[in-house]
Amino acid sequence: MWLLFVTVIVFNVLFIFMPKRLTSIEFFSTCMFAMVLQQIVDLAFDLKLDWYGYFAPGVQWWYFLVIVGIYPAVNAIFLNYYQWMKSRAMKCWYIGGWSVFAVVYEWLAVKAGYFYHHEWKLWLSAIMYPPLYLILLWVLKLVRKLVHNSVPVA
């Protein structure tokens, strides 16, 4: 549990004090999307298929700390520092670095005992993280387009 508490504190402090490059609506929309996507995936892979999960099978109260304390902050930090104007290679390195970090963190969470694998394997996570980060980037682009094209309601 120590890893969970330290993670929640560190990521949220980083989020609070980082120089913001995104607007409030961009942070809010993408964080809400990240939490909803995470819930859908966990509903299928954790509760339905029992491939992995948090703490113990079923829904645990501590799970809400993971949902609210980690996912929004990680999403916001990832998107805030993404280098839109850099080369394709730099973008790939950025996504790759975050994916490696996520796999290492998942491995630590398993070792710390607040995350477990049944049928799921760490190499599957390594395959899944890059597309998930790309989806977050796509959602941010969509939010920016929607905000730019929005028309006030009379």
Describe the structure.
- With about 150 residues, this protein is mainly α.
- The protein has one domain.
- Helix content is about 70%, strand content about 5%.
- The chain is built from six helices and two strands.
- A two-stranded antiparallel ribbon has the order 1-2.
- The chain is globular and about 50 Å long.
- InterPro entries: CBO0543-like (IPR048147).
- Keywords: Membrane, Transmembrane, Transmembrane helix.
Helix/strand order, N-terminal first? HHEHHHEH
Shape: globular
How much helicity do the residues have?
A: over 70%
Share in β-strands: under 5%
Rounded to the nearest angstrom, the distance between the terminal CA atoms is 50 Å
The total tally of domains equals 1
Largest sheet: 2 strands, antiparallel
* Residue windows where pLDDT falls under 50 for at least 5 positions: none
Q: What is the alpha-carbon Rg in Å?
A: 16 Å
| Backbone structural class | mainly alpha
What is the β-strand count? 2
Mean pLDDT: 93
Strand order of the largest sheet: 1-2
Write the layout of secondary structure elements.
Blueprint: H1 2-17, H2 24-48, E1 52-54, H3 63-69, H4 71-80, H5 88-112, E2 115-117, H6 122-148
Antiparallel strand pairs: 1-2
Helix pairs in contact: 1-4, 2-4, 2-6, 5-6
